Amino acid sequence: MTKKNYHMSPAQFREEGKKMIDWIADYYEQVENYPVLSQVEPGDIRKDLPNAAPAQGESFDAMMQDVEQLIMPGITHWQSPNFFAYFPANTSGPSILGELLSAGLGVQGMLWATSPACTELESQVMDWLVDMMDLPQYFKTTQNGGGVIQDTASNALLTAMLCAREMKTNFETNRIGGCPKIVAYISSQTHSSAEKDIKVIGVGTQNLRTIEVDENFAMIPEKLEAQIRKDLEEGYIPFFVCGTIGTTSSNAVDPIREIGEICRRYDIWMHVDAAMAGSASVCPEQRTAFDGLELAKSYAFNPHKWMFTNFDCDCFFVSDKSVLIKTLSVLPEYLKNEATATGAVIDYRDWHLQLGRRFRALKLWFVIRHYGVEGLQYHIREHIRLAGEFSKWVNESNDFELLNEPPFNLVCFRHKNNDAFNKKLIHSLNTSGKIYLTHTVLNGQFWLRMSIGQTQTELKHVQDAWRLIGEKSQSIS
Ligand SMILES: *Cc1c(COP(=O)(O)O)cnc(C)c1O
């Protein structure tokens, strides 16, 4: 008698898997028919889910039925071409298939030895990106530096901060703990993860200085230097500055070269966060915003925002990998192996916080190979062009105004009426289900953000959105 087992057989996997691919393809064909922003109320999804796990296994059909009936109403359709909220988290066919293959191989790539291809493909693709995007050559793994895929830009920033702390304290904080009087610098527009990260590394938010920005929401270098001098006089030790190319609120660009020169003068680690806008540097004509990047000790951007690679995929580069490894390396007995001992291989476990790691390079590799540099450039230019078109319509209208010339692919605009009016407008747009926009507050005013970077977004979607914005604004009293 054969012993009963509960696994899904390869034959059943093949059958269900094909259906799943069909389901996803159908979804992409119909994604425009769903309300972009999920319209459910808190608790709506959970109340229809069973209170206990099933004692007996269920059929795959039953699960997919529940996906359609119980889960889909609670989905906000990030992959809709009418998604203009936040920043995109776009994806694409080759990325989804790469993710599937990664799950299928089920590799845990913590060490070179635990799957050499997982490490070596990642190093190679990260080095490709250096050339594709004209990043500093020493970010290459074949040189002093190196690139690694992290889960998020937030954790890349955290890793950079840790390295900066250790550099500044001769790797002593790692050993003795506690914290000397070190201080970090961001602008008022830096991503909120910096504030979280300063807590995590034990330096504390009172040692995080917020530098003023100019009329373009870019950090003012003179203010940065003045604050550094003041801190030095008071006995503080400046250790970290985060510059941003493409701030979350308005895509503002900090003057990276000037900030970098200040950092060099005072021996401070400059991290550059280009989570969203980083993808733009695949286009040579966008690279002026990246001027001075060779002064950065670390740099991160997110293919999971604007390079057709599904979440999560953050590319993190350092100019000197030995600092990163010295900061994070630990070698317990159970991880010792010959390849590591020879020093001839990269063990990516030492390049980020966690030990285990997925084979994320596959999806990025698939994306780059599917589109080619030319394809990536084409689509990124298209998004930037559409943002330009949209801002032209705003400019030409009597009722709406622009915050500024849109940097890259984000347009901040508002109805000339007051904040209350604009809040009503965005509410009526988002509850219509037809488009989804989010807002920010800048110069004390409420601004709508039109973020154009979804994989399927074309001119007609942007035109429809503009028409709807006009119509809805007419019907607000
Ligand atoms: C989105 C964003 C982040 C955070 O990205 P995660 O990968 O979700 O952590 C950080 N910095 C900037 C500038 C961003 O726009």
Characterization of the model:
The chain has two domains: 1-37 and 76-91 and 373-477, Alpha-Beta Complex (Aspartate Aminotransferase, domain 1), CATH 3.90.1150.170; 107-358, 3-Layer(aba) Sandwich (Aspartate Aminotransferase, domain 2). The protein is globular. The relative contact order is 0.14. The protein has helices at 10-30, 44-47, 60-71, 93-105, 116-132, 153-168, 173-176, 193-200, 221-233, 256-265, 303-306, 321-328, 338-342, 361-396, 419-431, 459-474; strands at residues 146-150, 182-187, 208-211, 237-244, 269-273, 298-301, 314-318, 400-402, 410-415, 438-442, 445-451. A hairpin with a 7-residue loop joins strand 8 (400-402) and strand 9. Strands 1-7-6-5-4-2-3 form a seven-stranded mixed sheet, sandwiched between helices. Strands 8-9-11-10 form a four-stranded antiparallel sheet. The chain has 16 helices and eleven strands. Helix 6 crosses helix 12 (321-328) and helix 15 packs across helix 16 (459-474). It binds pyridoxal-5'-phosphate (PLP). Pyridoxal-5'-phosphate (PLP) binds next to helix 6.
Helix content: 40-55%
Q: Give the name of the CATH architecture of the largest domain.
A: 3-Layer(aba) Sandwich
Number of domains: 2
CATH superfamily of the largest domain: Type I PLP-dependent aspartate aminotransferase-like (Major domain)
CATH class of the largest domain: Alpha Beta
Structural class, judged by helices and strands?
alpha/beta
Which series of helices and strands comes N to C? Answer: HHHHHEHHEHEHEHEEHEHHHEEHEEH
Round the Cα radius of gyration to an integer and report it. 24 Å
Q: Please count the helical segments.
A: 16
Number of strands: 11
Q: What would the principal axes of the Cα set say about the shape?
A: globular
Strand order of the largest sheet: 1-7-6-5-4-2-3
Major beta sheet summary: 7 strands, mixed
CATH topology category name of the largest domain = Aspartate Aminotransferase, domain 2
What ligand molecules are bound, each kind once? pyridoxal-5'-phosphate
On the 0 to 100 scale, the average pLDDT is 96
State the assembly state of the protein chains.
single chain
Spatial gap, N to C terminus: 76 Å
* Poorly predicted runs of 5 or more residues: none
Query: What percent of residues are in strands?
Result: 5-15%
